[in-house]
Amino acid sequence: MIARIEELDWQPTRMGDLTLRRRTDPATGELIYEVKLGEEFLMSSLFTVAEEELSTLGLAAASGDRLDVLVGGLGLGYTAVTALADELQVSATLVRDERTTLIHDDFFAVARREPGADDRGYDVILLDVDHSPRHTLDPSHADLYTVAGLTALRGHLRPGGVFALWSDDPTDEPFLRDLETVFGTAAAHEVRFANRLTGGTSANTVYVATTSEA
Q1: pTM of the complete model
Q2: DSSP run (H or E) holding 150
Q3: Which of 48, 104, 176, 183 lies at a 20 to 30 A Cα distance from 200?
Q4: Do 113 and 59 share a structural domain?
Q5: Cα 190 to Cα 45: distance, rounded to the nearest angstrom
Q6: Domain carrying residue 138
Q7: pLDDT tens per residue across span 154-181
Q8: C-alpha 116: how far from its chain's center?
Q9: Is there a single domain that holds both residue 203 and residue 114?
């Protein structure tokens, strides 16, 4: 029998302890998996609609049948599994699918680097790490959401490439304008979902920015 809250694993990081835990919903008996950084909740398997829509909306804006997709911020894997469009159980799908390569790296450091001569670039970059462009988990992340940071990230996309970003906040109009400045085309999508904890409806934002084909 699984305890009400069970810590499955934890790792110390410079931003605090990263914890994966499992708990039982007292009302339904459902097993819920959660990721926390210190006392901040990063993700829960109770709410996955927006993470899945991040992938759905991002890939819908891309062209081509065989896309190279970079998922920054794996979380519990729902974004990546949606990209793979596979109905198998989440973790098994990711590690067994030959299309998946797991890279242990700092996404923000990768985004800042100049692409190497052998870098082919990506068709789509999906990012779900910070709560929003204004509410980052660490101050060192903030530069990515500036024009300079977004310009560096754009360098890792192929022509016609797509950058999609999850945010817990409503549409940030100044940030949306920065996306348009850097990428050329950008839109903010409100993703609404039923919240079983509040009995109401909650909403997240998914930004989708597209570079030109030239």
Answers
A1: 0.81
A2: helix 147-154
A3: 176
A4: yes
A5: 20
A6: 47-210
A7: 999 999 999 999 999 999 999 999 999 9
A8: 24
A9: yes
